[in-house]
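User: What would this chain look like folded?
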Amino acid sequence: MATSPCSSSGVSSSSSSGLGADAGLEIRTRSVEQTLVPLGLQQITTLINHKDKPKRSDKTLQAIQRVGQAVNLAVERFVTVGEAIANENHELKEEMSVACIEARRAGETIAQLTDVASLDHPESDSHITIFTDKTGVVKAARLLLSSVTKVLVLADRIVIKQIITSRNKVLATMEQLEKVSSFQEFVQIFSQFGNEMVEFAHLTGDRQNDLKDEKKKARMAASRAVLEKCTMMLLTASKTCLRHPDCESARINKDGVFHRMRLALEQVIEIVTDSRPNGENEMAPISIYSGIKEFKNKVEGLRENLYFLSKENLSTMLEVILEHTEDFTDSAYTSHEHREHILELSKQAKMELEQLVSVWMQAQNQKTKDLMEDLEVAILKTCQCMNELKREVHSAATSLAADLLKYHTDHMVLKALKITGVEGNLEAVAEYTCKLSEQKEQLVEMCRLLRHVSGTEPLEITCIHAEDTFQVTGPQIISAAETLALHPSSKIAKENLEVFCEAWESQLSDMSLLLREINDVFEGRRGEKRVYLSLPRPGKHNANLKALKPVKLDTEEQAKIAKLGLELHLLTSDVDSETEKWEDQENEIVQHGQGMSSMAYSMYLFTRGEGLLKTTQDLFHQAEIFATEGTKLASALHALSNQVHDDDKPLLLLEAEKLTSMCKQLQITAKASAQGKSATFTKVDACILKTRNVMTLLCQLLPLCCKLLRKNKAGNGYLKPAPPWKEDRIQTGTNPCTPERREDTFSIKSLENHITNMTFLDNK
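Assistant: Here's the prediction, encoded as structure tokens.
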């Protein structure tokens, strides 16, 4: 897929004469934004715009010089990283090297021109400075901005290329999986597929966290959620097809999964490259909320300007809104009361607009005080009517959703399908599939109506994703149930139906959360959602806790946590580097080490306000699981001690005991109660600090174990070359317990367990 560097990267450049960070850049990712900050572009702008005063104090001269030196130092660090990236990516080396040279030259020029602190009378000296050559500083600043932009564009292009390459590998392996005809071949290829999905999950997860555009972030999250659920479906659907190769419903079931995964993979690429197939423009669906918001803005704009739009434009906007209200009035699931109110308000809105247009046209011809007062009244009445319409459709959609979710919470139809399928009762299965189809239509309609009142673009996208999920999963459950009814003794067919039913139940559960968020937006409570490093609140792991008001940590506390987090990040890179040196990636020690690194990385993301650990309670839960994984690693070390020579055994046992002790301490800390801001901060600090200490020990343990295995030739832990720079951040570790990995590895660990326990010849 061909994409321009600027359109596909986290940075877009454009010609401009300005010097601010926003003058020539459209920053699309947080990493790019954070990279630009230390380069002092804002400081350069301030420097250039300084007022030429006849007298300059020593303090002013020293400040100017410090700015120049700081910019040059930041540029030098930036360029060093750029050159390292260039050396790892030969296809971009020449372009990157040129941009780095230009950036370094610009930084040095700025440092020279601001070297004024030692000059008593800089303008009379032969030394050229910012005071004698302000144009030179402007040129250097523009060169710096241009070259930095180019480096960032090229670096971001590498990330995008990694994601595209990873996607292509996944697609190629999927094609192989579709064609396999034996279980043995399937297991071998699916193992490779699992590893490729892990890599793709990490790359896209990092990109999702990096995106600034909340709409794109929501689309990426939706696509990744599809891939997560479909990976398990692909496993069981393929197993069922292999076990029952002549079963048409099993084939339909499997084909549906592959098709949906391909669509999700394609959407991810569209998001990261910021492009559409065949150059199509993305057509965002219009919701009633967004339509009313835009309409009201135009109406209220008449107070400032009577001539900025035509009456035809305003009438057209209202017509579009009222057309969308037909989704409610035409729906079989809208109550009679709501339908009547919506029709009444629609009629009233037309009348209020007619009155507004009449007064507006008069005011354009004769701007008298009375007419302007009449116009104000007409504006207020029109906006009030639209507010009432908005409130009515919100009530209609949310009350329907609440009723449906409550009604379907017992999953009676799914339970009946499982029972009748195992009984081989085709007639009963057909009856319940009809009921499931009716339920699907109700839920799809619910999602469509909720989209109109969601209030934000990310929530609109979530509604669309939910609608697609119900639309697709319903028929897949039906085909899986039909397969089981045809082969009632098949353990694999039963397992397959369970997986699809779980996906349905999971989506229903997600809808309850979505409904709560939509109500939060409507009632103005949205602001509390993204408070990180907060006091404990009700969360996924502590549903019974009382809700507490979120309180942010102060600057000093945040700085301390951020420093610990950075240390943790560096240690995860070290551990990943050590585990990648093991040839046997299935070794138990490697598996535990990768899992611990994975969890430590999610804790690092927490310190940045990113990732899936949203509250301190999530962090404490993660620390408990991390400690448990460490204890399992200690057990593996004890097992290894039985394989090594007597001379090496004491050292290994000593390290194992040390690890066990540290993990117990971490568990005690994570489980201890903490009330109040100060106590919570102390507990967060202690958990991250003790996790860091465990990771430090892990960095020493992994090479020691590898060395002992090699020395004793008792295992397969032989060394292999470390991968190049671009692969450093791709972790292959998985752990089914950690929330971060449930998202970022698509539950690959549980899939591996499925493969291990796979029954190749199901004769039951």
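The beta strands are 11-13, 25-27. If you want, I can go into more detail on any region.
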